Amino acid sequence: MLRGFYGVASGMIAQQRKTEMLTDNLANVQTPGYKEDQSSIRTFPELLIQARNTSSFPPHRTSTPIGDLATGVYMQERTMNFRQGDLRETERSTDVALLQMTPAAEGAYFFVTQNEDGEIRYTRNGNWTVDGEGFLTTSDGYYILDGAGEPLEVGSERFTVNENGVVTDETGALVGQIDVAFAEDPHALVKEGNGLLRSEDGELPSGIPEAGTEYRLAQGFLERSNVNVAETMTDLMNSYRIFEANQRMMQAYDQSMQRTVNEVGRLG
């Protein structure tokens, strides 16, 4: 009976964590460049139950297999889906979308940002602005870096970005090139919120190739989040139903335990 409690409790915890993940995805549907999280739910190892000492006379005491016992489930991991999001035209010069030309399974490209403390973070959110000193920054104030690893100074919002990331000012003078980092294993990156990711294995190498590019930049566009609203809502409802089913099982086990305790107590 107690094993049943453990099983349904683990199921409720797993579905609660999945629900939190799906809720986060829905909350970021409108966040440019947001990559949805996906879950992997696994079962704990099964146990083989045996009845021991089925014969009362030695040496015939043996173990008789009864069957397998499931020990519950858990949400093993929460991984990001790096599928390319659709592009939305904004016609704002400070909006830049990164269009990856290679499958996400072969790695992923990111804009490189830096805060005032020199910490490097990565993002696919190209919703930028120009600060009072003329530097291109994210909405959180992180500097957008150029290919030399320096904050990109554009002067004003009247700048131009070509598909390779080369930036020119309103006079046509070269300003620099937007740095784009390449992550061979993007799943190793850690989410920090506000569309920012960090690498725990050192800085990512630059993805700017010497000849040709495997990505394109589109000025005046933003990459939408890759959250599928209809699919996420369906998964969320299924998760609720599974949680409620486990909850009803928990109540049934609790009623059985109460009945057992009361009846055994009266027999004693």
UniProtKB/TrEMBL annotation:
It is found in: Bacterial flagellum basal body. Residues 106-168 form the Flagellar hook protein FlgE/F/G-like D1 domain. Keywords: Bacterial flagellum, Cell projection, Cilium, Flagellum. Residues 218-262 form the Flagellar basal-body/hook protein C-terminal domain. Coiled coil: none annotated. Signal peptide: none annotated. Residues 9-35 form the Flagellar basal body rod protein N-terminal domain. InterPro entries: Flag_bb_rod_N, Flagellar_FlgE/F/G, Flg_bb/hook_C_dom, FlgE/F/G-like, LlgE_F_G-like_D1. Its main location: other. Belongs to the flagella basal body rod proteins family. This is Flagellar hook-basal body protein. It comes from Aliibacillus thermotolerans.
